[in-house]
């Protein structure tokens, strides 16, 4: 079966894999971890796009590139960010509307649960 | 007003009522589907009821009935809706159509605004936000302030959660029930419940992807407690829905669905569908009746 998932949502799935991994990954390793039936070239394209956006670093390992996620905020390319923000900044604010405010009781509850886990 | 306007409607409303309690015994994914189907069936049935009421009532307005060649002496009151009720039903239908149209229009506008989103987009924002943008390209928008507050594992939880929304097309369910709730405000609580359940669904998928429900629970709690977060949440965001119940649900095991609940759920949906068919049958019956005269 051919996956017809749009490249856009694939991109975040690939980034999810990169963020989870401790080491840089080659396209075939990413493909393996995605456990889908994607084409190798698709994964390569997506990794290339992430690199182009400044969300991933790459280094040559043998014949292929190995990719790792850009972790520090300073390294994330600000140009690209601003461009999207211009189009949608006030929209983001309205889209992320108030759904379910946390009152002080809920906050205390959540803090308690967090402390229990740690 | 004769009972056959109301019987299918009441049938579907009863089904809707039982569907309300089903999700607590179901995995979130099954709950979303069951509730969405019930809500859509209830909406169709109610709209059909209004149509029939409108048709029956208006056909008995003297002028219209003459135009239809309607023999009032024989069929007056046959369909049991006085003219004023018919006109009221027609007005309500018009109002509903306008509200639905407005909602759909707004959805398309939002689509246009976020049409540029292609893959992962990091935006510079002081509020910690992350939400999924469905669409032909689609992707995930994350604010830099959220990223910098989370470690590597928590970031992959956020992405896994948003990816689950995209992969399982949660926006379709939400738009469906939202459209229904816009048309018929009494369905609003159901729309809210479906929204909450899509969040739970995405949480469970994320937990499976990162291999730990615990990690997902702590990430959600941490995001919710971030300063300036104030729980600003888009419907498809990591902070959406009632955070406390979502975290609680993640620390207890998933409900195992007993067979009898599944059977009950199926029967609820089937009964609702029967109600709709009955309503449809009444409408068709009425239209052919009116047409022949």
From TrEMBL, chain A:
Protein name: Unannotated protein
Keyword Protein biosynthesis: no
SUPFAM superfamilies documented for this protein: Winged helix' DNA-binding domain
Alphabetized GO MF terms: DNA binding
Gene Ontology BP terms: negative regulation of DNA-templated transcription
Family: Belongs to the BlaI transcriptional regulatory family.
Keywords, sorted A to Z: DNA-binding, Transcription, Transcription regulation
TrEMBL record, chain B:
Biological source species: freshwater metagenome
PANTHER family per UniProt: POSSIBLE SENSOR-TRANSDUCER PROTEIN BLAR (PTHR34978), SLR0241 PROTEIN (PTHR34978:SF3)
Residues annotated as domain Peptidase M48: 122-177
GO biological process, one term: proteolysis
Regions crossing the membrane: 6-23, 30-53, 84-101
Keywords of the record: Hydrolase, Membrane, Metal-binding, Metalloprotease, Protease, Transmembrane, Transmembrane helix, Zinc
Protein name as annotated: Unannotated protein
GO molecular function: metal ion binding; metalloendopeptidase activity
S-adenosyl-L-methionine listed as a keyword: no
Cofactor(s) needed: Zn(2+)
InterPro entries, A to Z: Beta-lactam_resp_regulator, Peptidase_M48
């Amino acid at each position: 079966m051919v996956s017809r998932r749009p490249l856009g949502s694939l991109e975040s799935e690939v980034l999810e894999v990169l963020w989870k991994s401790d080491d840089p990954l080659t396209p075939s390793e990413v493909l393996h971890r995605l456990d889908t039936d994607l084409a190798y070239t698709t994964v390569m394209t997506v990794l290339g796009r992430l690199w182009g956006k400044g969300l991933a670093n790459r280094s040559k390992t043998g014949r292929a590139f190995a990719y790792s996620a850009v972790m520090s905020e300073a390294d994330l390319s600000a140009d690209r960010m601003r461009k999207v923000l211009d189009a949608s900044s006030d929209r983001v604010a309205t889209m992320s509307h108030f759904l379910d405010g946390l009152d002080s009781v809920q906050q205390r509850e959540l803090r308690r649960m967090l402390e229990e886990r740690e | 007003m004769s009972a056959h306007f109301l019987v299918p409607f009441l049938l579907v409303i009863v089904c809707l009522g039982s569907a309300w309690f089903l999700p607590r015994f179901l995995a979130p994914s099954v709950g979303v589907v069951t509730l969405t189907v019930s809500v859509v069936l209830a909406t169709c049935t109610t709209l059909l009821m209004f149509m029939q009421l409108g048709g029956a009532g208006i056909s008995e307005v003297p002028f219209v009935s003459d135009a239809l060649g309607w023999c009032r002496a024989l069929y007056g009151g046959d369909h049991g809706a006085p003219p004023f009720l018919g006109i009221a039903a027609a007005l309500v239908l018009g109002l509903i159509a306008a509200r639905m149209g407005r909602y759909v229009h707004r959805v398309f506008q939002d689509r246009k605004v976020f049409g540029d989103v292609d893959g992962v987009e990091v935006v510079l924002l002081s509020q910690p936000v992350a939400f999924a943008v469905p669409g032909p390209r689609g992707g995930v928008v994350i604010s830099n302030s959220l990223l910098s507050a989370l470690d590597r594992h928590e970031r992959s939880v956020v992405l896994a959660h948003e990816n689950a929304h995209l992969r399982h097309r949660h926006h379709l369910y939400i738009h469906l029930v939202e459209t229904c709730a816009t048309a018929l405000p009494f369905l609003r609580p159901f729309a809210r419940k479906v929204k909450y359940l899509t969040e739970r669904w995405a949480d469970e998928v994320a937990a499976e992807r990162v291999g730990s429900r615990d990690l997902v629970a702590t990430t959600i709690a941490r995001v919710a407690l971030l300063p300036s977060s104030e729980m600003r949440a888009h419907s498809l965001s990591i902070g959406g829905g009632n955070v406390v119940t979502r975290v609680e649900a993640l620390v207890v095991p998933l409900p195992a669905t007993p067979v009898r609940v599944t059977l009950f759920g199926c029967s609820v949906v089937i009964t609702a569908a029967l109600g709709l068919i009955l309503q449809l049958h009444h409408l068709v019956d009425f239209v052919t009746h009116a047409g022949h005269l």
